[in-house]
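Action item from last week, closing it out:
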Amino acid sequence: MQNDKNILGINHIGITVPSIDEATQFFKAAFNAKIAYDGLSHDDQPRTGETTARQLGIDETTKIVRQRMLVIGQQGPGLELFEMQANSQSKPVGLQDLGINHISIFVADIENALNMAQQAGARPLSEIHGNSKYEDTKGNGSVYVLAPWGTLIELQSIPNGYYYPDDSERKVWTPKNH
């Protein structure tokens, strides 16, 4: 049995973007993101080659030219941005694709958050709608938006919290004072 005290939580989520500067501008305008640090800047040598490829599961010719850690809100994981030069890059995955397919940002006022995201360049996929089972308490709302480069982002508000089935093993994280 796994020691529950050993696994502490999600530290960060990584997203490859076409331009760190443009993505940072978007996340700042849309979600008031703050820069924690640049792990790799234009002043540094790009990360590339056999060792980088083996360690990170990328092609040997791919160059990581910039890397930045952002923080959104007061709690939760960081958002690590990567800017790469690669011979080929595919479009971002959608909800139907295998693997990590979106990030969700907890918001207090979903209409205001959607407006900010749109002003920053995001495109909503629909109108604000209710959440799914166990998130569908009074006043809840959700809407998916596409970032300018295609990453799927969910804006989610659950002001009255979750409810849980009898066999739930743990409660889902929610922001403090929410």
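Closing note: The chain has a mean pLDDT of 92.
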